[in-house]
Every structure is written in structure tokens, then in C-alpha cells.
């Protein structure tokens, strides 16, 4: 075992997560020493505004020049929690080339440039760990790489965005419309001032790219993931979901089917009996199926100051242990396959279609005929009269390829008896 007394780290960013990491490193100082045999010392912190007062933080640690950290030979670990692609990418690559291991929570960066970062880490014999980039404080990357390494994983499906899960929970439990639930989420701090990345499924899409790459050992980037958000979900859709003993969740889907990877994010009806249906408010969960372990679910806080800091510090402790035994880079990139990512149009899903139609004989037959033309089979039908001469028709389908459903919907809109297609939601 290599003799070390102090491991010095540089912290990039002192926002919500960065502050949590700093506090946790101080709070766990003695525990870290007992767990690793060395002391962890935050040697410097990169911030935008060096003059800003930060309670409880030694101002002598602050710098606005990242090379004060990457160029410091005493620093052996860089902790990146600043977010965004640049300058984080440049700084991390420079740190690795200087022989420093890197721990990051940056899902944007890993989802797009993970391959390059892994390659650079391997070339320089350093660790590159990113547990906090997916599902905050919930352990999922390490379990997939280590605990479940004896499995062939076929499914990794998750609720990986707390903002949208909070919104959908409020819509389901309090009969709110989308905008009302979003306003409450914003007021309580669950949603950002600009919630676009959350409510349009982009945040979840980045996490699913990372999750799919890790689970299936083949590179999946953000652009490979089809994303659809929750902005079109209405209280009326929620009421129908209740009728069907289901809930609506924004699900990130990573699956291996027919020698291809399916990677997508969309709102889906999911049976109340499924474990993911019980995940409420801002909590996250990832449901994994392996050929040996069968079904397992990881559940907990998907974001926040200390949950995310918990995942970051877990990685830091792993790096410290590896340094002690001279085995940094021990578990690097596991993308040793080149499995193709399936075209989103070729993915098969069941669908819930809600439409406003003319209330007269023969309408259902006309619609069923149009669907059959596009290889869409009906599994259930619910019809309610909304007003004189008009009815609301809800159709559930069997599994059908996405492109067949898209063609069917386009032709349904052209039928004289179809006034409006109000909702199209997939079923898990």
C-alpha cells in the first residue's frame, strides 16, 4: 500500500452541489480518514466571482483561474460540479493530462463527450467517475459497472427527473392542470426559472444516454435519445389514467431488443402495480432487469445539495482508495461493444389515444378501419358523450411500431368524423 497522509483536491464550482460537497468534505473529514487511511483536503475552489462572500468558506481557497488547480502539482483530484459543456470539458481534459483523477456530476458533458473523457483518462492512468451525473444521490452507475457486472442487462427504465415527477404527482393527486402544478414546483424550488430542460425531457434524455451506455456496454450519446416532454399532459388525461388503474410518469427508457438499443424519454401510462408507479413527488427511481438478478429497483433523492454531494463524495472516496493502492483507472470505459441504436420510428409501443369525434353510427368502424390499414390493433375503447353531436373517444392499442402509429394519426386527422386528436400517450 502506497504511503499517503493527505490527498488534496480542487473543487470546480461552488453552487448548490459544490457547496454541498465542500460542507460534506468538512463534516466527514474524520470518517474519510478512517475509511481511507488518509485525509482529504480541499486545496482550492474555482468560482466565477472571487469577491462574493461565501459563509463558512475560507476565502483564501477561492480562485477564478482554473490553472491554479490544474497546474498545482499537489492537487491529485479534481471535483467538477460547475455544469455545462465548456469550460468544464477543457478544464477536465487538462486536469487528466496533468495526471489528476476527475469526479464529475456533469450529465451534459458525459452524455455528449463521455468517450473522449474516458479515452483521456485511460491514456493518463487516472480515474474518471460520474455517479452523480445520473439520478443524484441514487447509486446506479457503480452498481451497473460492479455489483451487476455478472448480468446481461436488458432494461434500465427510470424516473430520472424530479421536477417532472413532482408536477405529475400534483396533477394526479390534486387534480391540477399542468401549468398550475409547474407554478407550484417553481414556487417550491423544484423547478428552475427556465424549466425547459426538465419539462421537455432533455435533462432525462442526457441521463438515459449515460445509463444506456453503462448498462449495455455500447456508446449512446444524447443525440441518439428521442425525447418528448410532459407539457401536453392534461388533467383529463390523468383522470383516464386513473380509470385504467394507471398513473402517468415521464419515463426514461433504455432497452436492448433484437440486437439493438432503444433509448427514449416520454410520458407513459404505467400500471399502479408497477414499482415505478409508487415513486412520488421529486423522488427518482431506476428499474433494472438482468438475466441473473431479475428485477431490481434503485430509489431515492434524485437531486439536491446533499443527495448529489453524497454521490460525488462516494466517487472521491473511491478515487482515494485507488490512489492508496496504486490502481487508478482500474474501472474505465466499459463500452466494448458497438450495438446500433434503434431508429425511434422502429420502436414498438402501446398507445393511449384520446380524440373528439362526431357522435354518430359508423364512426368507430371508420376509425378502426383506418388504424388497421396502418397495422394498429385496438385493445380497448372508451366513449363518452361530451356534448350534443360530439363524443370523446379513447382508444388503447396493442404494440405497434412508432412510424406506423405516426402514419395512422396523420390519416386519422384527415377523416371528416375526427374533430381533434387531443392526446397521444404511450403505455408501458
TrEMBL record:
It comes from the Bacteria. Keywords: Amino-acid biosynthesis, Methionine biosynthesis, NADP, Oxidoreductase, Threonine biosynthesis. InterPro entries: ACT-like_dom_sf, ACT_dom, Asp/hSer_DH_NAD-bd, HDH, HDH_cat, HDH_CS, NAD(P)-bd_dom_sf. Its cofactor is a metal cation. Pathway: Amino-acid biosynthesis; L-threonine biosynthesis; L-threonine from L-aspartate: step 3/5; Amino-acid biosynthesis; L-methionine biosynthesis via de novo pathway; L-homoserine from L-aspartate: step 3/3. It is an enzyme of class 1 (oxidoreductase). Belongs to the homoserine dehydrogenase family. This is Homoserine dehydrogenase.
Amino acid at each position: 500500500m502506497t504511503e499517503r497522509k493527505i490527498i488534496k483536491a480542487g473543487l470546480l464550482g461552488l453552487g448548490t452541489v459544490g457547496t454541498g460537497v465542500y460542507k460534506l468534505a468538512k463534516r466527514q473529514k474524520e470518517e474519510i480518514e478512517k475509511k481511507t487511511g488518509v485525509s482529504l483536503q480541499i486545496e482550492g475552489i474555482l468560482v466565477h466571482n472571487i469577491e462574493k462572500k461565501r459563509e463558512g468558506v475560507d476565502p483564501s481557497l477561492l480562485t477564478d483561474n482554473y490553472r491554479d488547480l490544474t497546474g498545482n502539482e499537489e492537487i491529485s483530484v479534481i471535483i467538477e460540479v460547475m455544469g455545462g459543456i465548456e469550460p468544464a470539458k477543457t478544464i477536465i481534459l487538462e486536469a487528466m493530462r496533468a495526471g489528476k483523477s476527475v469526479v464529475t456530476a456533469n450529465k451534459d458533458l458525459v452524455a455528449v463527450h463521455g468517450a473522449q473523457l474516458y479515452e483521456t483518462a485511460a491514456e493518463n492512468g487516472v480515474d474518471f467517475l460520474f455517479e452523480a451525473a445520473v439520478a443524484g444521490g441514487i447509486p446506479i452507475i457503480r452498481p451497473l459497472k460492479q455489483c451487476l457486472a455478472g448480468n446481461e442487462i436488458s432494461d434500465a427504465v427510470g424516473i430520472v427527473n424530479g421536477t417532472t415527477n413532482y408536477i405529475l404527482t400534483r396533477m394526479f393527486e390534486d387534480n391540477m392542470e399542468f401549468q398550475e402544478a409547474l407554478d407550484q414546483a417553481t414556487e417550491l424550488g423544484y423547478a428552475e426559472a427556465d424549466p425547459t430542460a426538465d419539462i421537455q425531457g432533455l435533462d432525462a434524455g442526457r441521463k438515459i444516454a449515460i445509463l444506456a451506455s453503462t448498462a449495455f456496454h455500447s456508446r449512446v450519446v444524447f443525440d441518439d435519445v428521442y425525447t418528448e416532454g410532459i407539457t401536453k399532459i392534461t388533467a383529463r388525461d390523468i383522470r383516464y389514467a386513473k380509470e385504467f388503474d394507471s398513473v402517468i410518469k415521464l419515463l426514461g427508457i433504455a432497452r436492448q431488443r433484437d440486437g439493438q438499443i432503444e433509448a427514449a424519454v416520454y410520458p407513459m401510462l404505467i400500471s399502479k402495480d408497477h414499482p415505478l408507479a409508487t415513486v412520488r413527488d421529486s423522488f427518482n427511481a431506476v428499474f433494472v432487469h438482468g438475466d441473473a438478478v431479475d428485477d431490481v429497483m434503485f430509489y431515492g433523492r434524485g437531486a439536491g445539495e446533499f443527495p448529489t454531494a453524497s454521490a460525488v463524495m462516494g466517487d472521491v472516496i473511491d478515487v482515494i482508495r485507488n490512489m492508496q493502492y496504486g490502481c487508478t483507472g482500474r474501472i474505465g470505459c466499459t463500452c466494448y461493444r458497438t450495438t446500433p441504436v434503434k431508429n425511434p420510428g422502429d420502436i414498438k409501443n402501446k398507445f393511449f389515444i384520446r380524440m373528439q369525434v362526431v357522435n354518430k353510427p359508423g364512426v368507430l368502424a371508420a376509425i378502426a378501419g383506418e388504424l388497421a390499414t396502418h397495422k394498429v390493433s385496438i385493445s380497448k375503447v372508451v366513449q363518452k358523450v361530451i356534448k350534443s353531436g360530439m363524443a370523446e373517444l379513447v382508444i388503447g392499442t396493442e404494440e405497434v411500431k412508432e412510424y406506423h402509429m405516426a402514419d395512422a394519426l396523420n390519416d386519422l386527422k384527415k377523416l371528416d368524423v375526427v374533430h381533434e386528436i387531443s392526446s397521444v400517450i404511450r403505455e408501458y
